[in-house]
Amino acid sequence: MLFIVSEHCNVLAFAELKEPKFITEKIIPIDEPTFEFSETVQDDICASRELPTVTLTISNVDGSTAQRVVWTSFPTYSERCNVEYKLTYHKRDKPTETVRHTFQGDGEFQTGNLLADTEYSYELKLSKRGLANSLTRRTVQTLRTHKIGKVFEITRYMYICNALLMRLLRKIFNNFMSSALRKPFKRLLGMTRKKTIAVGPIESGENYVKVKWGKIQPGNAVRVTVYGALAASKQSMDSPIRVGGLDACKNYYVLVELLNGNEVVKSNQPTEVKTSYPALNAPENFIIKSLSGELGHKLTWTPMTTQYPSACRLSYRVERESRKGDKVEKQSFALSETQLEVTDIAHEVEYFYKVQAVFNLVHGGKFSETLKITALSSKLNNFPKYSLIGSRASSYKV
């Protein structure tokens, strides 16, 4: 329990802190204390406080050419103050190809795979409508993405060294135990084994990988080992081998070895394979309402209830398209909640909204139906009139 005295209103407030949330790779707003002020006092605080100081951190994501963006601010605002965090990023030499996202509060964002060995510039802009002189604050960072082929070098060498060590130990053991018996038979029968194996493309599903290979010599066999949280291995003389029991949305390394008895005669370089994402249906009960007393939209939908593997981190993405005459502008909102409020609305502009569920911030599912809403200026008063039109052309006025 905290006791807080407002420097603006000299009011003693009692605030209970919620349990903390730890930032993961998906976008999670950082919780802040909730203060019970009257609406008049709260509005005065929001209008008078300066924007917080923000820290922007950019880092490369191991195992990919994606980049992770983390921002924190001090002091933090109440959510009622509606401070907008607008993140834009682009290739350093092409500022015209810019991607924009809008957030509320501190959080974290991960891009998809970007161009390798390329510098990207990020700008985070804080703004609060209603502050004197439309006060804004911004910060800029630049970082170069990973080079292709260098990211997995340490991990790959680890698997290669492990395979070579196991091969050497098995060879020493086999030579010690049975070389005196095996060598005469090899010379007598001319038992020369083909020491190559042609492995086809590795197939992966939600919970398995499947390995196919070409023709091998009689008596030889193939062993497939999948490295992840736990190593899983299968051995067979017949193609293909299917290794199941894996998790969806996860990276694994697959090692294929050609065997002659217990001896490894050929070991291919480990191959990275990602299991596929489960199917994602469109969120249901997607609706739009106008905000009471101000020019804005409130979007809500039903949370996804299906239980997915822990490696499949679920979030949502709302895409908005605004049209006025021939001018078209697109914007996306990434969030973990099942509702969104937007207030950057203009008169006589048509807005189109749709929502989808997303795994790991990169794999999107099916979109909901597109809803259209228009703010119509009124000649009788200063309040807007809304016209809401669904994708099936049904319409009504609010």
Automatic annotation (TrEMBL):
Coiled coil: none annotated. Residues 282-378 form the Fibronectin type-III domain. InterPro entries: FN3_dom (IPR003961), FN3_sf (IPR036116), Ig-like_fold (IPR013783). It comes from Opisthorchis viverrini. This is Fibronectin type-III domain-containing protein. SUPFAM superfamilies: Fibronectin type III (SSF49265).
